[in-house]
Amino acid sequence: MRSPLPSIPYPPSRDGFWNPVTATINWCEEDYYVTPYVAEFVNTFTNAIFVYLALVGISSCIRNNHPRVFLVAYVGYMTIGIASVVYHTSLKYWMQLFDELSMIYTTCILFYAVFSHGKSLFGQALLGTFITGLAIFITVYYHYLGDPVFHQVMFGILTATVVFRSMYIMEKILRPKSTPQSKAELLDTQLLKKMWTLITCGLVSIAIGFLAWNLDNIFCSHLRHWRRELGLPWGVLLEGHGWWHLFTAPLIWLHSDDPFRPADILEHVRHTTPMVHMEPIRGLPQLDLDNLAMLNDYWNNGPVSLTANGDITSLPTWLFGETPDESGKLHNATSCVVITVDRGSGDLDAFYFYFYSYDQGANITQVLPPMNGLIEDTEHGMHFGDHVGDWEHNMIRFHDGKPTGIYYSQHSSGSAYKWDDKALSVENGRPIVYSAWGSHANWASPGDHVHDSVLLDYCDAGQIWDPVSSAYYYKFDPETSLLTSIFPPGAEASTNLTSFLYYSGIWGDFQYPDDHPRQKIVPYFGLKRYVSGPTGPTTKQLVRKRLFPDHPERKNLLQWGVGIYMSLYPCCFRGWRAWASGIAFIGLLVCIVLGIKRSLKWARARKEGYKKIGNEESIPLWELDYLDDRTSNHRD
């Protein structure tokens, strides 16, 4: 029967570079039908999904400082992919063991991860001993038995145990005990719902893959016949074991929530009053984007701040900005400023500034352990570091019209990527940016991100926003520091609209004094509930050598101390390690003291040298100690 689709004949099995076959399983795919160097072509290259997703997981674990056991599990996951590649390439017995046993070992790691949750150190050690012994038993017995069915049964039992244990943890430990009340509990409930969806999809996927795996074995003769009828490339779709590789790939779900959307810059100015030392500046005309720079003349007595009208603790509606439509456009707000800086020699930097009327800082749920135990939650769920006004930005560097790198602003620092960096997502030539919940810090990927060593940012792909669909455009001259407006075709150039960019003051309230009724302070650390707003785009180092600003914000002593402590915490201060580190430190201190003492004694002796007793000196015999054999207790 001729194939109903355009195709080329499906080649038969043939001898190849790795012959003879020594594996106990030779899958249904014809051997060496594509190349003499790869025994099972489809079964080999479908493992690329394992390696790729493992690398994504490893990168996520390192970036977000996840527990080490999950990093090891992802390494095991990648090992499975690599082992499967070498097995299906060669069909050698030892490579088959490498493939199948790596599946067992990685599942054992996951077994330890889910069963060690909440266990004491002794319990974890006992569990580790048990699972190691089980892995050794499976290895030895499988090598002795040589039956692949034993491997499949043990792998299935371990996988099912991990899945059911995960379900138990989700329902009995993670799910709130009562109807969710707080924001954190609501988020936990939403996350659990997504986790159940993930597990359902995973079970369906693994069931389909496992079915394809076994159908590949049972109906091999029929599948080979049908593949020859269809020809290439369509016959590849009937490679059942290859489908197993694809259907077991993990799925990733993300977090979502942020009430503070992009805000209109002019509307923000209209809802504020310029103040110096919290006193309004008198005699000003109505302010807009064309005359805001006049406030720079009032800096003699202190910085000018665009202070919000009314009580910001009540969160008036204008602070929330505007939510973009489904296509990502704003209809009643201009929240973006684009500034290009020609650096010469074909280099150009394009800055994209995003404006929000309110920045909500972190609360206790966003503080990493063990520091969260040191911060007293004086008011349940109170955020600290809030401020009115928020300027965030990306900078894209071009060379001869082609993008070469991008910078993401994040709190007091940021991150930068080359344009071909695998961590950077680009869609239709445009980089993807994830704005963090509340803080609006810019990240290159969704998920949880650690900043300032101890705090978390939450990002997701919730609501799309195209900032340049409604933006102001400018050119900046590095030599003169002058800005020139760029008007899109068809726009009426009735005003320059550059004055607001020259304004050098604060785009929000100045930090309230400690005794102000709105101000709250976190004990010991001195964290304020409200801090000063940001300065504008022209203060963000538009002229820079690297993607990063040339003059980064300096850390204070407390920030340095917290950073060093958090970097050492996993290895040196977590749990029993704190006692071990303390003992080691005391021992080191004692050794240093004794070493200094011995060194001083040695130096003093060397300085004085050998002193000979003179002829006129004598030592009386009665001053010599001696032992009388007759009065001693010595026994031969």
UniProtKB/TrEMBL annotation:
InterPro entries documented for this protein: ACER, Vps62
Record bears the keyword Zinc: yes
BP GO annotations: ceramide biosynthetic process; ceramide catabolic process
Amino acids binding Zn(2+): 88, 241, 245
Record-given protein name: Vacuolar protein sorting-associated protein 62
Membrane-crossing segments per the record: 41-62, 69-87, 93-114, 121-144, 150-170, 191-213, 576-596
Family to which the UniProt record says this protein belongs: Belongs to the alkaline ceramidase family.
Keyword check for Hydrolase: yes
Keywords assigned by UniProt, alphabetized: Calcium, Hydrolase, Membrane, Metal-binding, Transmembrane, Transmembrane helix, Zinc
Main localization (coarse): membrane
Binding-site residues, Ca(2+): 27, 29, 40
Gene Ontology cellular component list: endoplasmic reticulum membrane
Membrane topology summary: Multi-pass membrane protein
Subcellular location: Membrane
Species: Colletotrichum scovillei
